[in-house]
Write a structure and sequence with these properties.
elongated; alpha/beta; four-stranded mixed β-sheet; Nonspecific Lipid-transfer Protein, Chain A; Rossmann fold; 11 strands; single chain; 16 helices; 2 domains
Length: about 400
């Protein structure tokens, strides 16, 4: 039997350190407010068995309890995430004990990677359409002035990438992890490139091909359901946007060796991906990475920027340019969260309640993590190591034409 006096002591300890817009309602009618201000987040504990989640309020424990329906939480996702992070910081003093989640290496076989990708991306195209921009770009946007709406910022992100790799008419482009085809379509339409986009998501491939057909670009864009390890040929330019997180840290040197093999001698490639900010290679603190591993991105692995650069060098590539877009991703995820909540009823009709809750907290949690430098996002431009850079521009000015 749970001792309610312990809960009261825990509550008083929290309130003595921080005022939170939180209310906790127990099954027996007891209520605990954590601030004199009106609550923006309410947690209902339906029975004594669920109190263990509350008294050890890691992101993993409370996220799991919410997703599995062990507790009920109401409020806007951003408020929920702020409250949960404050509870974790205040209650879980032993950071050394909890630390940052470091997952064991996964094998990342073709079968395993395809299953993981399809788990995340094949929810349904309609589901993603409900909270993404019209072009369905599911990666960090680029807010050039900070005043752009999401759709404009996503177009600017694609152009920023294609300008960085100096894409020219007639050149060939491989887009690894092409999503629903937005980058390939833009590259063919505006820049005159001939493109191959690859994905392991059947839903993405089907809609991307349909969008290519609608734009009349079948002769210039090929969308393949293909693993990056099975691509052959050579390309003038290669992009990888939001995909290398699925490769696995042990496989990164080989991943970049494959890009090296596929890249033309004087070609340019760009890797755009999420990194951990923990120099030891750990995930977000307080169990956030563990929650994402279990519920959102199975077998995903984040590495530090230093590991990315080292793996590129091991793969035979020379880093030409690095840009941090962390705050851009914080704003992107905040926009996705707002869209998700604005279309909540539509989304509830597309997925089961558990999936809805997973994504509700996941998107807001990512926005928080990027805003607080728990994870980051880097664009790294590279070319084959040892090549004469005479044809490469002297400055970064060419990226902003």
């Amino acid at each position: 039997m749970f001792d309610l006096a312990r809960l009261g002591s825990w509550t008083n300890d929290i309130r003595s350190q921080v005022a939170l817009p939180l209310r906790v309602d127990l099954w027996n009618g007891q209520r605990f407010d954590f601030s004199p201000e009106p609550p923006r987040v309410e947690i209902r504990v339906p029975g004594p068995g669920a109190l263990r989640y509350l008294l050890s309020p890691s992101l993993y424990n409370l996220g799991k309890a919410y997703v599995e329906g062990a507790i009920e939480v109401t409020g806007r996702a951003s408020d929920m995430i702020n409250v949960v992070n404050a509870l974790a910081r205040t209650s879980l003093k032993a950071e050394g004990k909890l630390g940052r989640f470091i997952r064991s290496f996964h094998s990342h076989s073709r079968k395993q990677d395809k299953a993981a990708i399809q788990y995340h991306y094949d929810v349904s195209n309609e589901f993603y359409q409900a909270f993404l921009d019209p072009a369905m770009v599911y990666s960090c946007a680029y807010f050039e002035t900070g005043t752009e709406d999401l759709a404009t910022a996503q177009v600017k992100k694609i152009d920023h990438i294609l300008n960085k790799i100096a894409l020219r008419p007639g050149q060939t482009l491989l887009d690894i992890g092409c999503g629903w085809g937005a980058l390939a379509i833009r590259a063919a339409e505006k820049y005159g490139a001939r493109c191959v986009g690859i994905t392991l998501s059947e839903n993405q491939a089907a809609l991307a091909r349909e969008r290519v057909r609608q734009q009349g670009l079948e002769s210039r864009i090929e969308i393949r359901l293909q693993d990056y390890r099975d691509v052959s040929g050579q390309f003038d330019r290669i992009t990888s946007v939001g995909m290398f997180e699925h490769v696995g840290r042990a496989n990164l040197p080989e991943y970049f060796r494959i890009i090296h093999r596929l890249l033309a001698p004087d070609g340019l490639a760009m890797n755009h991906g999420i990194t951990t900010t923990d120099v030891g290679g750990g995930e977000t603190p307080y169990g956030g990475g563990q929650f994402i591993e279990e519920y959102v991105f199975p077998h995903g692995e984040l590495v530090h920027l230093s590991t990315v650069i080292q793996a590129m060098q091991q793969g035979g590539l020379e880093v030409r340019d690095v840009e941090n877009l962390r705050r851009h991703y914080a704003r992107t995820c905040a926009a996705w969260t707002e869209n998700f909540e604005n279309h909540a009823e539509q989304i509830r009709g597309l997925v089961d309640p558990k999936k809805f809750r997973i994504w509700h907290v996941y998107l807001a949690g990512c926005s928080y993590a990027f805003a607080h430098d728990l994870i980051s996002l880097y664009q790294v431009v590279c070319g084959k190591a040892g090549m004469d850079p005479a044809n490469h521009p002297w400055s970064r000015r060419y990226m902003y034409h």
